[in-house]
């Protein structure tokens, strides 16, 4: 037996072109489809709640005249759910759940896993472990961020999207966007010839984060402590400076400029 299914209030309705739409909507076949009647039967029959939708025809028979399921007395039947493409989104995930969930009494119950109701059939599939959560792709991008540039990471993410291998691309983006956006702000500032804001540049902030009055006070205190006997050990070469305790070259200590020429050795 082929078992149709549909999203909430999206069951198929067949009518003639000259039929009055209000009369069509009042027909029992619209209010009670095979799929919705299955959930209604689960509300009143304890044995029915032990079966999945696919297993239902083995124990119950669909009565089209009465628009309800009744316990099977003779014969046997095997249920088969209509195939749908993954491109249809929620309908596809609903089909996956119908092969696993037993005895739901409503659409909301189909989305409920361990007492928690999920907003979509897809989320319920992930909660049941029926779909990969794409964590391996998140880990791959984070690992590549240690050595790869932002441009490379974005190229890697685009390659993943083009391969159609991501089950939840938004999940991967939400967990890696900081790595994927690395360098974009700087590139835009260079393109627009806009300098980096000093208010957000860490190096500039550190250089400006000095207490000038305290520095002036320390300078005056140390300057007043200077005497003629205090000396700085300097030498003209690096090798000679090693002979003095804490010695340095004169050019290094006093910032003496080096005027190099073609004859300098």
UniProtKB/TrEMBL annotation:
<keyword id="KW-0233">DNA recombination</keyword>
<dbReference type="GO" id="GO:0000723">
    <property type="term" value="P:telomere maintenance"/>
</dbReference>
<keyword id="KW-0347">Helicase</keyword>
<dbReference type="GO" id="GO:0016787">
    <property type="term" value="F:hydrolase activity"/>
</dbReference>
<keyword id="KW-0234">DNA repair</keyword>
<keyword id="KW-0547">Nucleotide-binding</keyword>
<protein>
    <recommendedName>
        <fullName>ATP-dependent DNA helicase</fullName>
        <ecNumber>5.6.2.3</ecNumber>
    </recommendedName>
</protein>
<feature type="domain" description="DNA helicase Pif1-like DEAD-box helicase">
    <location>
        <begin position="228"/>
        <end position="264"/>
    </location>
</feature>
<dbReference type="GO" id="GO:0006281">
    <property type="term" value="P:DNA repair"/>
</dbReference>
<keyword id="KW-0227">DNA damage</keyword>
<dbReference type="InterPro" id="IPR010285">
    <property type="entry name" value="DNA_helicase_pif1-like_DEAD"/>
</dbReference>
<dbReference type="GO" id="GO:0005524">
    <property type="term" value="F:ATP binding"/>
</dbReference>
<comment type="similarity">
    <text>Belongs to the helicase family.</text>
</comment>
<keyword id="KW-0067">ATP-binding</keyword>
<dbReference type="GO" id="GO:0006310">
    <property type="term" value="P:DNA recombination"/>
</dbReference>
<dbReference type="GO" id="GO:0043139">
    <property type="term" value="F:5'-3' DNA helicase activity"/>
</dbReference>
<dbReference type="Pfam" id="PF05970">
    <property type="entry name" value="PIF1"/>
</dbReference>
<keyword id="KW-0378">Hydrolase</keyword>
């Amino acid at each position: 037996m082929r078992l149709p299914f549909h999203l909430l209030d999206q069951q198929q309705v067949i009518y003639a072109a000259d039929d009055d739409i209000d009369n069509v909507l009042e027909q029992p076949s619209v209010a009670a489809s095979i799929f919705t009647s299955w959930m209604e039967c689960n509300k009143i029959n304890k044995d029915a709640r032990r079966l999945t939708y696919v297993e239902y025809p083995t124990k119950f028979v669909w009565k089209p005249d009465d628009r309800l399921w009744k316990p099977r007395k003779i014969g046997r039947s095997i249920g088969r759910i209509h195939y749908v493409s993954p491109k249809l989104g929620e309908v596809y995930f609903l089909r996956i759940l119908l092969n696993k969930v037993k005895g739901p009494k409503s659409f909301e119950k189909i989305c409920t896993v361990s007492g928690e109701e999920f907003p979509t059939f897809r989320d319920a599939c992930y909660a049941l472990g029926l779909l990969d959560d794409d964590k391996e792709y998140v880990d791959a991008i984070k690992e590549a961020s240690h050595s790869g540039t932002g441009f490379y990471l974005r190229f890697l993410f685009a390659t993943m999207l083009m391969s159609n291998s991501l089950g939840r691309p938004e999940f991967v983006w939400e967990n890696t966007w900081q790595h994927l956006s690395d360098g974009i702000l700087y590139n835009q500032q260079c393109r627009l010839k806009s300098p980096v804001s000093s208010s957000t540049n860490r190096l500039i902030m550190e250089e400006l984060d000095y207490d000038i009055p305290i520095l002036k006070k320390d300078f005056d205190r140390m300057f007043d402590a200077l005497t003629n006997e205090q000396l700085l050990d300097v030498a003209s070469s690096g090798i000679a400076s090693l002979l003095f305790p804490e010695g340095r070259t004169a050019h290094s200590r006093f910032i003496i400029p080096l005027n190099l020429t073609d004859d300098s050795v």
